[in-house]
Structure formats: C-alpha cells, structure tokens
UniProtKB/TrEMBL annotation:
Residue ranges of domain Phosphofructokinase in the record: 3-275
Encoding gene (name): pfkA
Source species taxonomy: Bacteria, Pseudomonadati, Bacteroidota, Sphingobacteriia, Sphingobacteriales
EC number, UniProt record: 2.7.1.11
Name used for this protein in its record: ATP-dependent 6-phosphofructokinase
Annotated positions binding Mg(2+): D103
Keyword Metal-binding set for record: yes
Provenance organism: Pseudopedobacter saltans (strain ATCC 51119 / DSM 12145 / JCM 21818 / CCUG 39354 / LMG 10337 / NBRC 100064 / NCIMB 13643)
Amino acid sequence: INKIGILTSGGDSPGMNAAIRAVVRTALYYDLDVIGIRRGYEGAINGEFIEMDRKSVANIIQRGGTILKTARSQAFQTPEGRKKAYDQIKAQGIDALVVVGGDGTFTGAKVFGEEFDIPIIGLPGTIDNDLYGTDFTIGYDTAINTAVDAVDKIRDTAESHDRVFIIEVMGRDCGLIALRSGIGVGAEAILIPETKTDVPHLLHRMEVGRKDKSSKIIMVAEGGEGAFKLGEIIKERFPHYDTRVSVLGHIQRGGKPTCMDRVLASRLGVAAVEGLLEGRRDVMAGLIHGKVEFTPLDHAIKHNKEVNESLLKIVEILSL
Ligand code: F6P
C-alpha cells in the first residue's frame, strides 16, 4: 500500500475530525501518501480529492463536524455510481480506503469491496452507537453529554412549573442514546425500541408511582412510539399533569468532541492504518473491553447490539 484515501460519510459525528487527523498522521508516520475525499462517496464519484499533509489536520482534533464534509450518496447505491467512484479513486493512485461512518457507510463499503479489488477499513463514526463490534462509536459520548446538558436545563423549568416533559433523543432504531442519557439525567422513565418498556407499562407506572414528585422527565428514543403521540396519550390519561414535549434534534450531532471521543477516534485511526498495512480488509476497527478489535463489516452492521441488562435494571430501580 502506498496511498490511502479517507472519507467521512452519512450523518456526521463529533470526533470524525479527530479520526481524520489520526489516519492522516499515522499514514505519514509510515511514509504513505493520503488523499482526502470530500463529501463521502458522492465526492469519490465526482472527483473531489485533496492531498492531505500534517498541516491540513492541524487544530482539528477539538472541532465538531467533519472538515472533509459528508453526504448520503444515492448514486453510490447504483453499480454505475460505484464504478465511477472506483475509476476516480484508481486514477488518483489510491490503493486502500478508510471510511468513517455508520450503517449506510459500511453497507456501501461492503458492496464496493466485493465488486472491486480495494482494501477498506471502516471506523465507527456515528452518534447512535448502533454498530456491533465496538463498545462505543465515535461521537456517542459527546452526543449523550450534549443530551444530558440539554435535559438538565429542561429539568430546571420542568421543576419550576411542576411539569411532565417527554423528551425525544436521536438514535434511529437504537435506544442507546436514550438509555444512557436518561440514566444520566435521572429520568423517571426511559422508552427504547429494544425493550418491552412499552406505553401501557409506562402509564401503569405513572399511575401507581410517586405522586409527590413535582417534575417528571420521560426520555424517548426516536425509533419508538414518537414523543408527540406519547404526549397526547399522557395528556388524555393524566389531564391534571401539565405536559410538554421537546425534541432535542440535531443539537446532538454537533459540538466539541469529549475527551473520550477524541481518544477513541485517535486509537481507532491509528489502528485502521496499521490494520491496512497488516493486510486487513473489509473490517471495522472497534474497541471491545478496552482493546482494539477488527470485525467484518457485514457483522458490524447486521448484528443488533445487545442492550446492557444491568443498565435496564438500574432504570427499573431508580426511575419513577
Ligand atoms: O445516524 C445519525 C442520525 O443523527 C440518527 O440518530 C438520526 O435518525 C439521523 O441521523 C438523522 O439524519 P438526518 O440528519 O439526515 O436528518
């Protein structure tokens, strides 16, 4: 391998810049050239390449977003689009790829790696933490801290007004942002798609639960019932509560990465380049029990991550 291409794709996540920096600097350390591909697979198709050197990644470890920009490419889902991307990449002399992203990014990488002879290593860059083969994805820690910070603020006003707040957080089909940030804010209930913490159960617990608490925070993962629908149900069942709904939205995707995310991105960025040099391909670099491990891309995307039972028990004991 002489020249590595790096891209970020799909929804951005805090720490992607730290990952780009780590990949570029590790490649240079091993005397490899690095090309940045802008706007993910879309940029590969359209020939958006830039040479990367030590300086091009200076002062980015602390920045949210991605300096390479990102996109969700429709064209890359077609064989013609992928062929175009391959031709462009080959014309640049790129002979290996590091792709930073989530589910969609790895799905694309897997097909691309099967169709063309190019080694690819994925780095888990998504706030959702929904990839198998890594305890945490790059951006998750920042996102849950952002959510905790926002909900702490909501708690102040909820408490002042004796209100019930239903707060929706991101995560696509995965409830892990809701679960951890919900525990972190002392939520009275947490609804996630992975468990049977369903609406009747919640209503029952509200019915029999403490009446003396002035505010209630109900954390809801976006992949479930939907915060507004739940708000209507609660308003109807408990008309004496003053109920409000708040959707945190894209605030969870931005901001300075936490130290945890910067270190994770740095470790995995180094591992990706070293993995390519060791001959690995079509795998994702992740961290399992504190150790770097490589997982085939199709395992990373196909297996549902298990929800930690002990966290669910904690919710049951400490909420309502
Ligand atoms: O995958 C990251 C994520 O933020 C999900 O949590 C969310 O469902 C989705 O992306 C939102 O995507 P978009 O920014 O395209 O609306």
